[in-house]
Design brief:
This protein is of the alpha/beta class and about 280 residues long. It has a single domain, classed as PAC-like subunit (Rossmann fold), CATH 3.40.50. The chain has nine helices and nine strands. Strands 2-5-6-1-7-9-8 form a seven-stranded mixed sheet, with helices on both faces. A hairpin with a 5-residue loop joins strand 3 and strand 4. Helix 1 packs across helix 6, helix 3 crosses helix 5 and helix 6 runs antiparallel to helix 7. It starts with 6 loop residues before the first strand and ends in a 5-residue tail after the last helix.
């Protein structure tokens, strides 16, 4: 049996860890591929700052008003699947009590015999939209690195909730890995990046042997790339900048390039985020 086992939590959170909504989009793709039931959800009063992650309101079918509160929940498939079961942990990144928040889910994972964890994230990076999306795959667990040929991150500095989950999983002896997609920083951060979502799901399937159908994402990714091409065609400065990024990426991808170029880009991203006003 693979070191990640037969029951694997795949975790992604909105916010700091989710450039271009790529990681949350990957979770949405997994949710749509199977029927899931909720295993556990947290009390939002304990972990969320409503001025930072506000509740939303909507009208129901009868015209009544509903309030939807920030949440984080663990979901499991309701029917058996071929290969490992992928359980889904998703929601908003908490604003407080991170250790208690993570411990709450790790306790559920241990109770329900979860055998592995994969965290999904996405970062804004100096990469061109015209090339394949890079995914930095790493683990602090030597068994996982040896089994899947992953890197070991040497980053030091501020982190998001995904890194806390990896740390606590390791302490609980749950093998864990992380996948981070690089999203072109010159693309509007509020716009979804289906090409990055597709890259995360492709890499997740390589890691676990499980993945949803992705034909619609391939179509959306092609349309996304074409829309950026069209915008760049009317902006010579943007076009030249993209050409510079393409030359750099092609150098990385050449046979003579350093094998840790993507890892270095990942660490530069985290340091930039750590220098900003949001150090959650």
């Amino acid at each position: 049996m693979d070191v990640l086992g037969s029951r694997i939590i795949v975790a992604a959170f909105d916010g700091w860890n989710d450039a271009g909504e790529a990681a949350s989009g990957a979770i949405a793709g997994l949710r749509e591929s199977l029927e899931y039931e909720r295993v556990h959800t947290v009390d939002p009063e304990l972990y969320f700052d409503y001025q930072y992650t506000r509740p939303s309101t909507r009208l129901d079918a009868a015209g009544g008003r509903e309030l939807n509160w920030p949440e984080a929940s663990l979901w499991r498939p309701t029917v058996p699947t071929d290969g490992p079961e992928l359980w889904l942990l998703t929601g908003s990144e908490p604003a407080r009590a991170w250790q208690a928040f993570v411990t709450e889910f790790i306790d559920i994972a241990l109770r329900d015999d979860v055998t592995g964890m994969v965290t999904l994230g996405a970062m804004l990076s100096d990469v061109p939209h015209t090339r394949p999306i890079s995914v930095f795959a790493a683990s602090q667990d030597e068994r996982v690195r040896s089994a899947h040929g992953l890197d070991k991150s040497t980053y030091e500095g501020p982190v998001g909730i995904l890194s806390v989950f990896e740390h606590f999983a390791q302490q609980a002896e749950i093998p864990a890995a992380s996948l981070w997609a690089s999203v072109p920083h010159y693309v509007a951060t509020a716009a979804p990046s289906p090409k990055a979502t597709l890259a995360l799901l492709d890499r997740l399937e390589e890691l676990t042997g499980v993945g949803p159908s992705r034909e619609h994402l391939r179509t959306e990714a092609a349309a996304w790339e074409a829309s950026i091409d069209a915008a760049a065609a009317d902006d010579e400065d943007m076009s030249e900048y993209i050409r510079q990024l393409e030359r750099t990426r092609d150098t990385w991808d050449s046979p003579d390039a350093s094998g840790d170029a993507i890892a270095q880009a990942f660490e530069r991203y985290l340091r930039r985020r750590g220098d900003g006003p949001d150090k959650r």
